[in-house]
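Course assignment 3, question 2. Fill in each field.
Student: A.L.
Task: Predict the tertiary structure for the chain below.
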Amino acid sequence: MCGQSKSKKSNKSRRKQKSRSEESGLIGLSGQERVKLKMQEKAKKKTAEKYSVEQLLEKTEECMDNFDFEMAQLFCQRALDLEPTNLNTLDMLGNICAELGNEEKAKQVFLRAVALSPEEGHSKYMYLGQVHSGMEAVQYFGKGIEAMLNALEKQTTPAAAAAAISLDDPGVTNKDISVAFCSIAEIFFTDLCMDDGAAEKCKEAIDKALQYDPENPEALQLMASYLFSIEKTQEGKEFLMRSVAAWLPSMQKKTDQTPREKQGDGAQDGDSLENVFPPYESRITTTKLLIEAEEYELATEILESLLEEDDEVVQVWYLLGWVCYLQVEKPEETEAFKDSARTYLTKAKKLYVKVKCDDSPMLEHMEQLLAELGPGEDLLDLEEDLPLENIDDDFVESSDDEAMEQ
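Answer field:
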């Protein structure tokens, strides 16, 4: 009897200690916060009993495939609660947060992944490089390149290939490494352009990018920009034309396909065409370089295709006006180019007001060009019918008209 009594007392003592330790974690929290925390703990236990980490990650991927990133975040967070040091889950959660625009949360998740595994996995470093600037960004991209080079070396030996291609580092390619070097070159072109040796470091990064992927359009375009900046215009133009040739023919093929041809194509072909296209902003840069190289027709073709994708980007309308203005001296086409330039620049100016753009040098240049072109008859009618305060109606009506035509 005495022994049983002693045992009961010790059990009570342990329960009291456990209760006190649990309550200590709630000190300083409001009643509502305590309830919420306890409910979360219960939910974690219930999830652990019902689903494995693998099942939760499968649900996460399913939601991501359906672009339901909010639900994907819930499943992924539950998986991370069960295994807080799972690198694949951290990587997935970081990417989901980035998709949702939660930059700070994504940053914290990737920094945690870096602390847990600094030598493996490159995607966390690529994201951290994007959200930082200056030398800090260069260092993150550099670490990412190191991780990719190590992974690529492992992939070259058949015996180690299966181990190298893990969920955290799914098959590194030369293109991935090339793109990372392009990111470093961009920083020396912009944020660090005034630093000592910036030009040499920029050129070195571009050379490395082209070494790993000689046909990477982004790397070729960066080399063109670099050569234009040091006044080697002809050499720059050659690299620029190689860059454009790498993706523009596929875009023309995609646009020219009939519905029957599209239906006959495999999904892989469609996906590969999409992957060839540089990002929207990169193609805007392409047109600027083409204008500098006096390749006006090619610049116009790309700008018009950009309008088809998104007709509410002020810079695209402005560049179309600018490229038309530069051709007003062409014999027999002077008035046509003048009219086109007025139309594009007027639309750009109206859209500038609508979207509350804050690029004052661009606005000043538009106003200067319009003043030099002078008012045309069609433009006077347009100004009277569509004052600036009705700009929203103007663009809405335009979109409605296009929808009716389709």
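Instructor remarks: The longest helix spans residues 2-24. The radius of gyration is 29 Å.
Grade: pending
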